[in-house]
Design a protein that fits this description.
Radius of gyration: 46 Å
Strand content: 25-35%
Largest sheet: 6 strands, mixed
Shape: rod-shaped
Oligomer: single chain
Distance between the termini: 170 Å
Number of strands: 43
Structural class: mainly beta
Number of helices: 6
Helix content: under 10%
């Protein structure tokens, strides 16, 4: 009738095994796991009780009963840093559920009378990685180890994601690019959760091969990637034998534009996206620059065509105060979250021709007509609605001086066309800052060249000549009658392409940002010779007699023609006087 008593117990944390020694033979079938509780001292405020899935090692009646702790119980026990880490904090209480073979219940061990372990074996087995999962949508890496891990000891710099099991070239070591990659687990369990920083994610997606599917997702661990609760470092998973992912979630998040800058001086738009994007999917024609957020509008059919052949927009389309880039603007970067677009000359000139768009940060907004780019997995970027157009984060104004690149002179229609390398403000043109001359270099006067005896001539235009163009790369100047007649009077000026040159001062014209044109030729600040005519059209319009008078006192006939005449070419024999318009000849 004497109840059995628990005399001693031994705990092996490596094997997860408890050996109980009783004063009498015990009927093992009466064991209930939940009646055994571990605590840190004889009397303690907290304890850990086994669950039902821990079981007796043998059902044979004996004085010594072995209990094999379940994986859940041993991991839960290891997660408590104040219990069962050494002999001095390993105590046991037990409710009286054990029965001896005489069917008498054992004496209970209660809190305050807890029994200290007679033997304690610390955990000496290194934990191993048994599996992992990766979500590229939530940027989360979940590691599963063979036992409880001290989450605070995990070193993410000793972990690498790679595309192949036995090849580390396509790999990224965590935290190499982003210090925000960190362990997020707040409890010590066999599961360790890691939040991967965006820069590390960008580095992974940049590889293009790693972590794109379950078949391309592997993990390697260096020594001491993590440590268990007993201080044992995790086993190495070498890059030559990396572990395959158990589960993989592909990236389902659409990239979006985070910010952008416009350097109008360098003709560069820099886009920053929320993640790595594939550069060859960036569609520049989907980018629309506008003066402010506004409703969606479209070019007329003709201007839509003209955008592809470098023709100016009509006035109605210009008034829309928005412009879409064309194929002349190109991407000059590789796969990255940072994309650089070199705005083409065609687009820059079209943009500059609309002075209400992108002359300052305040009137520079960007929208996208459709998905402008895709990420590395094929997710299209979130479009930016016209009504929610994004203002540029930084703006650099144009400070480049415009240059005169060529000109043509048509003496038949009395016009001069100046072509610049960028859009200029034709209404600012000052004709008195332009000089036509008969040779590359001239001394400022009409004279004879002493070296070859040839006469050189020049003419600075007057205000009689005027610009008839607005904002364009080509400015048409209509020659005034006074200027045209003076050109024709000078025998050696503008009689052929070889005798037609132009020099200009910086006062001639300004671009759309007020930058003065680079001087050419005779301007004192210029170091370059005059510019030769690219296309010359000789005067083919016959002069007309405008009026005449006859002075019978002096016997002089005076005739006025529509343009300057060469006096030496006059043939008096062809001159006839008659009494009426259709009367007899005198």
């Amino acid at each position: 009738s004497t109840p059995p008593a628990l005399l001693a117990f031994a705990l092996d944390m490596s094997l997860g095994h408890v050996s109980l020694t009783f004063s009498r033979v015990i009927d093992a079938t009466t064991f209930a796991a939940s009646t055994l509780c571990f605590q840190a001292s004889v009397r303690a405020s907290s304890s850990f009780c086994l669950r039902q899935n821990s079981n007796i090692s043998s059902l044979v009646p004996d004085y010594v009963v072995g209990v094999q702790l379940s994986v859940d119980d041993i991991n839960a026990l290891k997660a408590i840093p104040t219990i069962c880490t050494h002999l001095n904090n390993t105590f046991l209480t037990a409710a009286g559920t054990f029965q001896g073979v005489n069917s008498v219940f054992m004496s209970s061990l209660v809190n305050g009378r807890a029994l200290q372990a007679s033997s304690f074996t610390r955990d000496s087995i290194p934990p191993t990685l048994v599996g992992f999962s990766l979500s590229m949508t939530t940027n989360t890496l979940l590691l599963t180890f063979s036992e409880t891990i001290n989450a605070s000891t995990c070193n993410v710099t000793r972990m690498s994601l790679q595309a192949f099991a036995n090849y580390s070239a396509q790999s990224v070591t965590l935290s190499m690019y982003d210090s925000l990659t960190r362990v997020t687990s707040t409890r010590n369990t066999p599961l360790v959760s890691i939040a991967i920083g965006q820069l590390d994610i960008d580095a992974i997606t940049f590889l293009d091969l790693a972590a794109t599917s379950l078949e391309t997702t592997y993990l390697s661990l260096e020594s001491s990637a993590c440590v268990d609760m007993a201080g044992n470092p995790t086993d190495i998973v070498p890059s030559s034998a990396a572990m395959a992912a158990l589960t993989f979630e592909s990236d389902r998040v659409q990239p979006q534009l985070v910010n952008y800058t416009f350097d109008k001086h360098a003709n560069v738009i820099a886009l920053t996206f929320s993640e790595t994007v594939r550069a060859n999917t960036l569609n520049t024609s989907a980018l629309i620059l506008m003066s402010s957020p506004q409703p969606s509008i479209s070019y007329c059919a003709q201007c839509a065509l003209n955008r592809n052949i470098n023709e100016p927009l009509c006035q109605s389309c210009t008034n829309l105060k928005q412009i879409s880039l064309s194929a002349s603007s190109v991407v000059v970067t590789q796969n990255s979250k940072f994309q650089t677009i070199l705005v083409g000359v065609r687009d820059m000139n079209a943009l500059k021709a609309i002075p209400e768009i992108c002359t300052t940060r305040l009137n520079c907004y960007l929208a996208t007509s459709r998905a402008v780019v895709s990420d590395m997995i094929g997710n299209s970027a979130i479009s930016i609605a016209y009504t929610a157009a994004r203002q540029t984060d930084a703006f650099t104004p144009d400070a480049v001086l415009p240059n005169l690149v060529n000109f043509s002179l048509d003496m038949s229609n009395q016009s001069l066309v100046l072509t610049f390398d960028e859009t200029v403000n034709g209404t600012s043109l000052v004709t008195s800052c332009l000089t036509l001359q008969s040779s590359l270099l001239i001394n400022g006067t009409n004279s004879t060249n002493s070296s070859n005896g040839e006469e050189t001539s020049e003419l600075t235009l007057t205000t009689a000549s005027r610009s008839v163009s607005g904002f364009s790369t080509e400015i048409t100047v209509v020659l005034g009658t006074v200027d045209f007649n003076e050109i024709t009077r000078l025998n050696t000026l503008a009689v052929s392409q070889g005798s037609t040159f132009v020099s200009i001062g910086s006062c001639l014209v300004v671009d759309m940002n007020g930058n003065a044109v680079t001087p050419v030729g005779s301007d004192l600040s210029s170091q370059s010779p005059a510019l030769g005519c690219q296309r010359f059209t000789a005067d083919s319009v016959a002069p007309q007699l405008v009026w005449f008078d006859v002075d019978m006192h002096t016997l002089i006939v005076r005739m006025v023609f529509s343009e300057t005449m060469r006096a030496s070419s006059t043939v008096f024999r062809g001159l006839r006087l008659q009494s009426t318009a259709s009367g007899a000849v005198l």
